[in-house]
Amino acid sequence: MKKTLSLLLAILLVAALAPSALAEPTKLVIAARGGSHVDVINAVKAQFEQENNCVIEVLGLENPDLKQKIALDSRNKAGAYDIVMLDDPWMPEVTEAGMLLNLTEKGYQDDADFVPASLALGKAPYGTGDTFALPFAGNVTLLFYNAELLAGAQVPDSWQGVLDVAKAVNAQDGKVGYVIRGQQGNPIVGDFMPLLWAFGGNIFDADWNVLVDSQQAKDALNLYIQLLANGANYEKNDIVSSVADGKAAMSLGWPSWYISGKASTAGYAKIPGKVDADSAENPAGMIGNWLMGIPANTQHPDLALQLLTYLTSADTQKAAASSGAVPTRISVFNDEALAQEYPFYATLLEATQASRERPRTPRWGDIENVFGIELSNAISGIKTVDQALADAKVAIEDVMR
Amino acid sequence: MRAALPKRPVKYLILSLFLVWTLFPIYWMFSLAIREKGELFGALSLVPRSFSFEHFVDLFKTKAFGLSIVNSLTVTLISLSLALALGLACAYILARARFRFKLKGAMLFWVLLLRILPPIAFALPLYILMSDAGLLSTKIPLILSHLLINIPFIVWFMITFFEALPVEVEESAAVDGASEQQLFLRIVLPQVLPGLTAVAILSFMTSWNEYLYSAIFVQSPRNFTIPLTLSTLNSEQELTQWGNIAAGGVLSLVPIAIFVLFAQNFLIAGLSGGAVKE
After folding, report:
1. At which of A322, A337, A356 does a domain end?
2. Which of A49, A169, B13, B69 could form a disulfide bond with A249, CB atoms 3.0-4.6 angstroms apart?
3. How many structural domains is chain A composed of?
4. For residue A163, what pLDDT is reported?
5. pLDDT of A177 over the 70 cut
6. How far apart are CA A292 and CA A38, in angstroms?
7. ipTM topping 0.85
């Protein structure tokens, strides 16, 4: 027994000490967001491996872990990763810290086929600077609705219209008019920002003065609270099931919550950019692309750039569509065969073109936290709208100081 | 006897409530794991309306969960063995105060400090050390970080067991010619078997479920442990895969349950064995 145990322990020890890369050819490592993105990369990588005689390993991680790993690895002289996936709000932080290779300096020429709103996310400074990352996966928040509960009424194109429908539906046969995602932090901020933008408000002005206590912000938050009064506050899985099952009429959400493959479990439309029928239209959908960049300390910069170009090419995006990839290229969105197969592409393209990016500051994560706390205080009645937004302004200014 | 009777229903009621409170999360996890995907979408009933192993199959087919189990077992068993060997020896030496210099208090505090400080405090220095040593592509950083967590716990847990032992037994064994090694392995350890078993179970569970250092040190999908694999099943832009997460939770319970059942026998044997020579 003792011998067996000793032998087992010795085998385990050898297995643990053996480097993963033992006896393997040169490999490229992609640090990616776990889940469907990893499936997509794995589905399309074989051709590149064959053509370039390399092996691609995909490390799928949860959001905070991915960001942490990218930051930790950036301090190494020889980086462990050749390509990293980046949630677009991380861009100011990673580019200011010099973590990414400047693709423009490396000779990359911008491709006009990318949706401009997506391409702009990978530039530093935003929209105008050099390109540091390319859009790999498209995403923008949409308005989702249950067509039966709308009962023939038109899909609202203004927030007053959304509220009217919510009022008409709510509490009838136990139905819910509108579902907000009111959990503190990223959920409530992501859910509220489209309203803030539609009302003409924002977090900052062009000089980084904090605007969250503006009249537009107060009006937007008041309407958000009215929507809650004519609806409910759920977590994302419950939001999706309630709208899809016909318990709730409307919610905002990311397409991948509702749309899987060719089918959607709910109706979808661009998020209204108007307060009411008479007001001006503002871009209101929140863009949330996943980008891909090359760490500055990669050991294979040339091959990594080739791989990055390959993974974001139109051909690859077309091939990856069946694995659930959302494109970032106009030609792929407009591809006739794909558009027939994935009818939501047209709405997604329209919404992306009319989308807004979250403020480009390295401190966005902290801002999301403090702003989310005050929004939560307002919807739960702990503070008045005025007080919550005034406190949010002070908190955000503290973060920015 | 009669006076005690009315108390019994209340006692049983409270115990039953406590039992339900404790066991319900485990029941819920099992219940989610065996439902069909369709049933998990929408309002959930307390009792499953469908039965399926699809989440388990999905985990092994698409998430390489078998490899995660092997990795978790490898890291846990190696780190537990090393932590027990080092921690028990350290606790015994400190308990018997075989130091001429008076540093026992300071050393104990130093060991405790490792346990008091939040694990994240060690993350960056350890990462730099491991990276500079070129060990990040192996499981060594993970094993060492688990030692960092478990050794202080073992020392502090076991020191009271060693101190409670009558020193006469060791002295008589020494008189009989036992070496230090024989004394420790054959005389002392059998007497602290209950404590050893308990600390082994707790250390096993700590190592098995450890997430933070796994997330920091693991650099290859081939080294993913169970908690790391399960964490990727939930993301902001995708729906949470509750069925797969629950199935993973059920599977990760199995080794712990086996280990506890296996160790319980030793626990009982240790308790009933008797240590002091008549």
Report:
1. A356
2. A169
3. 2
4. 96
5. yes
6. 13
7. no
Cβ neighbors of A264 (< 8 A, separation 6 or more) are A258, A344
- Which residues of chain B lie closer than 8 angstroms to A38, CB-CB? 232
In sequence order, what are the beta bridge partners of A158?
A274
- Residues of chain A neighbouring B128 (CB-CB closer than 8 A): 75
Q: Which pLDDT score, from 0 to 100, does residue B275 have?
A: 43
Residues of B in contact with A68 (CB under 8 A): 215-216
Residue A255 corresponds to which tokens in the numbers above? 């397409």
A241 vs B41, B140, B236: nearest CB: B41
Provide the angle, in degrees to the nearest 10, between the axes of the packed helices B242-273 and B54-62: 90
Residues A183 and A318 reside in one and the same domain: no
pLDDT score recorded for residue A22: 47
User: Do both A305 and A227 map to the same domain?
Assistant: no
Looking up residue A200, the CATH number of its domain turns out to be 3.40.190.10
Q: Does A63 touch chain B (CB under 8 A)?
A: yes
Q: Identify the contact set of chain B against chain A, taking CB-CB distances under 8 A.
A: 41-43, 62, 73-75, 77-78, 81, 124, 127-128, 131, 136-140, 143, 215-216, 219-223, 228, 231-240, 242
Average pLDDT over residues B74-81: 96
Task: List Cα–Cα distances, B84 to B77, B151, B154, B158, in angstroms.
Answer: 10, 7, 7, 10
In this structure, what is the dihedral angle of CA atoms B259, B264, B265, B269, given to the nearest 10 degrees?
140
Element (H, E) at A33: strand A27-33
Query: Which are the contacts of A94, defined by CB distance < 8 A and separation ≥ 6?
Result: A70, A71, A86, A100, A132, A293
- The answer to whether residue A326 scores a pLDDT higher than 50 is yes
Report whether A175 contacts A169 (CB < 8 A).
yes
Percent of chain A, pLDDT > 70? 94
Task: Count chain A–chain B contacts defined by CB atoms under 8 A.
Answer: 108
Q: What is the pLDDT of residue B3?
A: 52
- Asked whether residue A251 falls in the same domain as residue A383, the answer is yes
- Say whether both A76 and A161 belong to one domain: no
Is a pLDDT exceeding 70 seen at residue A184?
A: yes
**DSSP strand pairing (A142-145 vs A248-253):** antiparallel
pTM for the predicted model, two decimal places: 0.82
What average pLDDT does the segment B8-25 reach?
A: 91
Assess whether A274 and A370 both reside in one domain: yes
Using CA atoms, how far residue A187 sits from A67, A91, A142, A359, A389, in Å, is: 18, 20, 15, 16, 17
Reference A366, options A153, A183, A230, A189; nearest CA is: A189
| Cβ-defined contact of A62 to B139 (cutoff 8 Å) | no
* pLDDT confidence bin for B236, thresholds 50/70/90: low
The verdict on a CB contact (< 8 Å) between B81 and A21 is no
Q: Structural domain of residue A341, as residue ranges?
A: 2-139+289-356
Q: Are residues A153 and A280 in the same domain?
A: yes
A394 and A269 both lie in a single domain: yes
Tens of pLDDT along B55-64? 999 999 988 8
* Residue-wise pLDDT tens digits, B126-178: 998 998 888 888 999 999 999 999 999 999 989 888 988 888 888 888 888 88
Question: Does residue A186 share a domain with residue A83?
Answer: no
